[in-house]
Each structure stands twice: as structure tokens, then as C-alpha cells.
Design goal:
two-stranded antiparallel sheet; 53% helix; 2 strands; 98 residues; mainly alpha
Amino acid sequence: MKRIKQRLITLEQASTSGGQRITRIELVNAMTGKVGAVIHIGGPESDAEVLQVLTYKHETDPPRKHTPAKLAPPPQRARDLRDMLYSRQKTRERVQIS
């Protein structure tokens, strides 16, 4: 939310230096023409407007597919230690049986 606020502040400053003033931004669904969210530029910041934009974005954007990270095989040294401990355990079992 901080990034969106910062971008809006930058947009407001750029619009006033160019001789034109942007007073509001409307996010419109291109397929339906419906206005999904409105952000008013200038004046006090409104967290409700930013939340409305985020809600609209999540409603209209398809969810991203999450691909799980591939697990790397354990390092060779860890395998060697595991094998060494396993062989010691087997040796102890043999000694106790005899």
C-alpha cells in the first residue's frame, strides 16, 4: 500500500508541473466499461480508496499459478555423514546381539 501511495504522490507532482492537474483516476474494466475504483488526487490520503483499488485488482486479475520451488538434493557430505551414522548404528546392533 505504501508503494501505491508513493506512486500517487509522484503522479500528482508530475501533473502539476506540466500545467495540467489530475484530480482523480478511474480504474475501468475494459470489457464491461464498469468503473471498478476511483482514486482522488490531492487533499488528504484515503486508505479506503487504496483498499478499493486493491480489492478491484484482486477481483479482476486471474490468480497466479504458484510453482513450488524444487528441492535441491542434500549435499554429498550430509549423505556421507548419514551413511556413516547408519553404519555405526548397525555395528552396535550386531555387537549387542553377539
